[in-house]
Specification:
With 430 residues, the protein is mainly α. The chain has helices at residues 8-11, 16-36, 42-50, 56-66, 69-78, 83-86, 95-131, 151-176, 193-203, 218-245, 273-293, 305-333, 339-347, 355-364, 369-386, 390-396, 414-429, and strands at 136-141, 144-150, 178-179, 206-207, 252-253, 336-337. It is 63% helix and 5% strand.
Length: 430
């Protein structure tokens, strides 16, 4: 992923040098396990432990001659080990015993980073939702004015959606944080299962239950599907900010730095560029998810078709999602909210937002439904076409109505607030 959409703590996990450091860790742990079994001499183990992580430049130099990254890594690693000891490195293992076990370990760390920022996004949303629970605004369906709601209610829906994303990512982490050290076709023919058990336990990951040569790729597909769903949930937040930021609406505005400039030609512009960026990144994440599903089916016990895809799609998906969730949390935390504009939006249609309350009152007072609906609709149509006050038109038709206030729609609203406060409190306790 380009540096523009990468944060260093996530990007560093996927650097070549970090990968070789993790491969070194796996090889050393495997040698330790073999030594416990009496298969690697103690002096050889000491030499293996002392060996430095080979540089990415050296591995690349050897790979130009050998055209095989794992063999090139092992050659570079063994350059720092006496020859008599180097022969014990990678004992009984095949390439993907190393690659997939290291990958499971790295994915666990990447998931932890991602879950951390997504949890922050959830907490920021919950806090902001409680803050604006009583900030009345117009609800919209089909993009049109519907009934009054509150801005806090809108944010609460987003907070619960992100909470579900946290749960999906946690479940995906459990499935993907696994390794295998089982040999060329997964039969443990040349390696004791204890080595796998020992290495995976030391890394804090699980083991594939029935390995072929690799960890099953449905696990990785599940993770990127969860990431894509997160992206869509962030996109929903960003779209709402974009819609509410339009000049004729201006109920919210993105946080701005003092350096902000919105247009090269129009100095007045205050474009929702962060939200637009979040929407674009969600499109990338959906594309990666489809690509990763294609990786599930491999030939026989394994082929290499998944490798090139994972180096791009899976890595980029995690880097992009980490960036997107971080940017979304910053956006929500600094969002400017304009309650007066929200209230003005309710009033701008001269009372039309209260039509359902008027209809409900008529029905409760015994008016036949079709008659009541047509009467209220006729007054609404007149208000739209003539610009008259909806309530005045109803009273002129002899329809007795009470005060038209947003609070009429919020009498049972706090049942949702209690759920929201529970979510918020969970985040603070964590």
């Amino acid at each position: 992923m380009i540096s523009r959409y990468s944060l260093p703590e996530m990007a560093e996990l996927w650097s070549d040098q970090a990968r070789y450091a993790t491969w070194t860790k796996v090889e050393v742990l495997a040698s330790q396990a073999q030594a416990l079994l009496g298969r690697v001499p103690d002096d050889a183990l000491a030499d293996i432990r002392r060996a430095a992580v080979p540089s990415a430049a050296r591995v690349a130099e050897i790979e130009r001659e050998r055209d095989h990254e794992i063999l090139s890594f092992l050659a570079a690693f063994c350059e720092d080990i006496p020859e008599d000891s180097a022969r014990w490195v990678h004992l009984g293992m095949t390439s993907y015993d190393l690659v997939d076990t290291a990958l499971g370990y790295t994915l666990a760390r990447a998931c932890d980073l991602l879950i951390g920022v997504v949890t922050r996004l959830r907490n920021v949303l919950a806090d902001k939702a409680v803050e604006h629970w009583a900030t009345v605004c117009i609800g919209r369906t089909h993009g049109m004015h519907a009934e009054p709601t509150t801005f806090g209610h809108k944010l609460a829906g987003f907070a619960f959606a992100i909470d579900r994303c946290v749960k999906r990512l946690a479940a995906a982490r459990e499935e993907v944080a696994v390794g295998t050290i089982s040999g060329s076709v997964g039969t443990y023919a040349l390696i004791d299962p204890f080595v796998e058990e020992y290495v995976c336990a030391e890394l804090g990951i699980g083991a594939e239950q029935a390995p072929s040569q690799v960890v099953a790729r449905d696990r990785h597909a599940q993770l990127v599907q969860a990431v894509a769903t997160l992206g869509a949930c962030v996109e929903q937040i960003a779209i709402e900010v974009r819609l509410l930021s339009r000049s004729e609406v201006r109920e919210v505005e993105e946080p701005r730095t003092v350096a902000y400039q919105g247009s090269s030609a129009m100095p007045h512009k205050r474009n929702p560029t962060t939200s637009e960026r979040l929407v674009g990144l969600a499109r990338l994440l959906r594309g990666y998810a489809g690509t990763m599903v294609e990786n599930v089916a491999l030939w026989h016990e394994r082929d290499l078709s998944h490798s090139s895809v994972e180096r791009v799609a899976m890595v980029d998906a995690l880097i992009v999602a980490h960036y997107q969730a971080t940017a979304a949390a910053d956006l929500v935390a600094g969002l400017d909210v304009f309650p007066d504009r929200m209230r003005a939006a309710i009033d701008q249609t001269n009372g039309l937002a209260y039509s359902s309350a008027v209809l409900a009152d008529l029905l409760e007072n015994g008016t036949e439904r079709e008659h009541a609906y047509r009467a209220v609709q006729a007054a609404a149509n007149s208000a739209v076409s003539g610009g008259d006050d909806f309530g005045t038109l109803l009273r002129a038709e002899g329809i007795d109505i009470g005060p038209l206030r947003p609070e009429r729609f919020l009498v049972r609203h706090d049942v949702i607030l209690k759920r929201l406060e529970t979510l918020r409190d969970k985040g603070h306790q964590a």
